[in-house]
Amino acid sequence: MSYLEYNVKSTPTGLRKVLYLNWPLTLLLITVASVGFLQLYSVAGGSLSPWAEPQMKRFALGMSAMLVVAMVPIWFWRNMSVVAYLLSVVLLIAVELVGIEGKGAQRWIDVGFMRLQPSELMKITLIMLLAAYYDWLPARRTSHPFWVLVPVIMILFPTYLVLRQPDLGTSILLVTAGGGLMFLAGVHWAYFAAVIAAGVGLVTAVFESRGTPWQLIKDYQYRRIDTFLDPASDPLGAGYHITQSKIALGSGGWTGRGFMQGTQSRLNFLPEKHTDFIFTTLAEEFGFVGGISLLSVYALIILFCVASALATRDRFSSLLTLGVAITFFLFFAVNMSMVMGLAPVVGVPLPMVSYGGSAMLVLMVAFGLVQSAHIHRPRGRSR
Amino acid sequence: MKHKTKDQGHSQGKLTRRTAVMGGLQLAFVGALGLRMRHLQVDQADQFRLLAEENRINIRLIAPTRGELFDRNGKVLARNVQSYRLIIVREDAGDVDQVVANLSKLVRLDPGELEQAMVEMRRSPPFLPITLADRVTWEDLSRVAVNAPALPGITPEVGLTRVYPHGPDLAHVVGYVGPVSDYDLEKIEDPEPVLRIPRFHIGKVGLEAKEEDLLRGKAGAKRVEVNATGRVMRELDRQEGQEGADIQLTIDAELQAYTQARLKGESASAVVIDCETGDLRAIVSSPSFDPNLFVQGISVADYSRLRDDKYRPLANKSVQGVYPPGSTFKMVTALAALEAGAVSAADTVWCPGHMEISGRRFHCWKRGGHGHMDMLNSLKQSCDVYYYDVAIKVGIDRIAEVARKLGIGVRHDIPMSAVARGLAADKAWKQETYGQSWQIGDTANASIGQGYILASPLQLAVMSARIATGRKVTPRLVKSVDGVEQPNLSSEPLGLNENHLRQVRKGMFAVANDRRGTGYRSRIIEETMRMAGKSGTSQVRNITKAERAAGVISNADLPWERRDHALYVAYAPADNPKYAVAVVVEHGGGGSSAAAPIVRDVMLQALYDGTPPLEAYPTGDRDRIQAQQEELQRDQDEREISQSDRA
């Protein structure tokens, strides 16, 4: 679709755009962020510092970013897709060269005023590029091997860079989100069947390579897999995180132990309680009711995104919105699986709730794109 | 552009379908997450709640306060006093080395202790308090308090330390406490957790060790909430423990102190027993040591000095030392003979100064012989030949039986360390121990308390009390526990004929009061407190024929460790026995000269419950006694001053 087909005349202009925001989605996002503030306040022992207050500021910044991105017409973002993607790739390469190390990985680059995590940026620019690609590609060519290979390279090249940092969580997210988008775009089933088969092969290879000089992932990741498979084997060592996490969750019961009454989080038995494991503090303090509520809110966010995607005739907008929804889904699904002992601890934060600037900012920008697509969707004359 | 629109429509439809598939998958996953959450939070909630409680709740023991010890008059023998120690908390101190350096300028820190503390500190989490100096004086403490700003992280802590106000006087009776050692833990099966509290003290020897279970009490416990690193966040609740029981001894601390002072300079022991109740009024072993030295760990120099002293201050001679009782055993032989009906008191034996028994010549201590001896005279003058004669008539087994009835060769059950059984040998014993049959010469030796007869001073005192009363006087050291009077087991009759006992008592009275008695010089003048006694001198070596031919060397010419042991046993008042006393002076020479005066002095002290009037003593002795009393008083005053210094 060219820019002319957007039917510019029927698109709201100026500040009026604010009225056309996807308000339910916006409110849901504010709700989730508020849950985050509440829990960050709680895990700090009833204090705004050190986490809740900075998180609020970042959310305010994120909201502003979302609005700014939303105001800009979606066709501009579509045209920027390639540039954004390339910029992300350059930054990822920069991480490789001048990145800052932390927690056994090299993930950040210092850009003066803040530490930037290009892998976070990559999550959204990859979605943009793929959406733009399938918008551009005639539908009948979608399943042509060559035109399948192109997006595969688009996905795997940054994934490779991220995996080298190493950041297994983000790598999985990139591949899955990218693959999901290809699936939505209509790539033939057979490709996915082949990839899944290959994936099984790869997993086998990863395990087979263990202990050899060419082993594919770091020792700590192997250990995490081991303890995932049998966390009870080392309850004070590597399995400690997941064991304590499950205790916190389980001890919450139906209605939880009460706000700021969670012993597991208050007494520091929970690891990373303000970041990756923040969901357990919520589940401990508000119980099954609290946990299922947050899960429902997340599901609603996905639902509104899907509804918005299906409501537009613009292919780029649809794919982009669905891509953001997939990414968002993957975030909370992996995080929750991880804290509930269903998946290995790979270091994926709970979206909008976990303490952390980069991830939230990137998500808010992504939702800005969704909002932009919503505001600037083709109106009036129907097909 | 028509085809494109169609194409677009087609792809739009496909997108919708695929979105539906994808959405379905996502929904299914969300459902799975919800189910998992339900499984953990609802189905397994109780189990996880328990685990969470286990995580956060720790049980800490509270050391119980040890029971205190009192003498029969309520004087404190062992108590707990507050002591101060300096502890450091690493996380509050910041620069630990600097703080310790500052502290060592103010307080003398033991380098060894400091080194240990530093090692401990490196191993433990930063919030755990580590003891830097124990038993800090009040002056040091105030200096630390004044300089507090330069000593962040250092705080004084109050603890309880065991103190023995009477020092050496009761060291052997009370014993001492010390920190639990690995060796102690090994000895105890399934040790109580309280023993693992750092710096927890338990009784090591003496009554402190024997009555450990009573004195220790029960540990309390508090439940505390801890965080993941083990730091205590708050106390949830506590269960108070039970303090150790206070124990009152039968000992009279003043009499004990007097006796200890009286034995000064000798390697000796003395026991004072109440004839009526069996109460041990004093159990003294000399020389003694200061038990307070052991409480915090004795220095190597101090310890080796005590260990290498030939007078063996660490040994408790009064109950764990056994000696041939010598002539003090003659009452046993005499009683056995009377009981067996082998002799009557009036029967006489001719003493020519020796007796031939199966080809061996057994000598009387008096070379010229005593002439005709009946029982009274044989006791009074301690004629050996009389006893050789009657013992052979009676046989050793009957003698041993009477000995055991009188408490020799029987382990008396008192809560002190290594209470000796002694030995009242008979035929079966020798066969069993040496695989040899009993010889008639053995009987002769045993009859005068030599050879295979061994008794502790405690047993000799018990023997005297039993002879004096005819009842089975049983020694008792613990008077009451937490105010509950302990049973008195001394009322049972001995099962010996009263007439026979009377004959023996008559002999003992003659020993101490007849002009020709061996104990006459150490008699009591005071009519109502006359003493009955018996001296003993036991050989620690065999006198060879050659020596005897050359004339027996007098004790004074022998090296100390080859001299005879001096023994004396007595009870008084003779007509209404109140106390029995036994004294053994190791290598002291003759019983009548070395031991009898001590018995008399101690007995008077006990009877008068304090310093006796000079009138109780024979006229000739009074000057000497007065001088002695004054000297003892001076000694005691000095000691009291040094004790108040310590307190």
Question: What are the SSEs and their pairings?
Answer:
The complex is a heterodimer of chains A (383) and B (647).
Chain A (H helix, E strand, L loop, with lengths): L22 H21 L8 H20 L2 H25 L1 E3 L2 E6 L4 E2 L1 H19 L8 H19 L4 H18 L3 H20 L10 H11 L10 H13 L10 H4 L11 H34 L3 H25 L17 H19 L8
Chain B lengths: L1 H42 L1 H12 E6 L6 E2 L5 E14 H4 L2 H11 L4 H13 L5 E8 L1 H9 L7 E10 L7 H4 L1 E4 L2 H6 L13 E5 H5 L1 H5 L3 E7 L5 E8 L7 E3 L3 H10 L5 E7 L5 E7 L5 H4 L4 H9 L8 H4 L9 H11 L8 E3 L2 E4 L2 E4 L7 E3 L1 H6 L3 H11 L1 H10 L17 E2 L2 H8 L5 H8 L5 E2 L2 H13 L8 E4 L2 E2 L12 H16 L18 E7 L6 H5 L15 E8 L6 E7 L5 H18 L13 H25 L1
Parallel strand pairs in B: 2-10
Antiparallel strand pairs in B: 1-8, 2-3, 3-4, 3-5, 6-7, 8-9, 10-19, 11-12, 11-23, 13-16, 14-15, 17-18, 19-20, 21-22, 22-23
Helix pairs in contact in B: 11-24, 15-17, 15-18, 15-22, 17-20
Give a quick rundown of the structure:
By secondary structure, chain A is an all-alpha fold. Chain A is 65% helix and 3% strand. The model of chain A has no long low-confidence stretch (mean pLDDT 86).
Give a structural overview.
The complex is a heterodimer of chains A (383) and B (647). Chain A has one domain. Chain A is globular, with a radius of gyration of 21 Å. Helices cover 65% and strands 3% of the residues of chain A. By secondary structure, chain A is mostly helical. The mean pLDDT of chain A is 86. In chain A, β1 and β2 (105-110) form a beta hairpin. The longest helix of chain A has 34 residues, at 278-311. With 647 residues, chain B is of the alpha+beta class. Among the domains of chain B are: 83-159, Penicillin-binding protein 2a (Domain 2), CATH 3.90.1310.10; 253-295 and 318-616, Beta-lactamase (3-Layer(aba) Sandwich); 620-647. In chain B, the strands form seven sheets. In chain B, strands 2, 3, 4, 5, 10, 19 and 20 form a seven-stranded mixed beta sheet that branches. In chain B, strands 12-11-23-22-21 form a five-stranded antiparallel beta sheet, with helices on both faces. Chain B has a three-stranded antiparallel beta sheet with strand order 1-8-9. Chain B starts with a helix and ends with a helix. Chains A and B meet through α6, α9, α10, α11 and α12 of A and α1 and α2 of B.
